[in-house]
Amino acid sequence: MGAHISIPMYERTVGQRLAFEGERCTDCGTVAFPPKGACPDCRNDEFETVDLSGTGTVYSHTVLSPGGAPPEFAGQARAEGRYVAAIVELDEGPRITAQLTDIDPETVEIGMPVSGRIRRIYEEEGVVRYGFKFGPADD
């Protein structure tokens, strides 16, 4: 989804924004996405980088109307109307918040397979911010 992210922070996190790059704990094997400072299961602070599939299922979702959109999505909400924000459970285990795209909000269901797409998220400070959104999984 989105929130204000400084240009230096955006540049440091480009791997997780453009390539579904996560971390696997070297102690217990838990996969974290986006990368964390410590393992959410065992608190270990050593990880190996892993490429994630970018596929998963809808764990939960809600439909936002233009009036409920965060400021960075206000233009999109005015242009497109309602959109879906979801918690997606990736095939590798982590749950992440993401916008669903290329789908009628009325057809979204819990357990629905989805796949990640790299898309333009918004523009701020003269820089177009890219990141992931999810849509119906390709069959």
Which series of helices and strands comes N to C? HHEEEEHEEEE
Helix content: 10-25%
Alpha plus pi helix count: 3
Strand order of the largest sheet: 6-5-4-7-8
Largest sheet: 5 strands, antiparallel
* Total number of domains: 1
Measure the end-to-end span.
Answer: 25 Å
**What are the low-pLDDT stretches, counting only 5+ consecutive residues below 50?**
none
DSSP summary, beta strand count? 8
Mean pLDDT: 82
What global shape is seen?
globular
C-alpha Rg (nearest Å):
16 Å
* Global structural class: mainly beta
Strand content: 35-45%
Domain ChsH2 rubredoxin-like zinc ribbon: 16-48
Protein name: DUF35 domain-containing protein
Organism: Haloferax denitrificans ATCC 35960
Pfam family, one: zf-ChsH2
Task: State the main characteristics.
Thioester_dehydratase-like; DUF35 domain-containing protein; globular; ChsH2_C; ChsH2_Znr; mainly beta; 3-stranded antiparallel sheet; 139 residues; 5-stranded antiparallel sheet
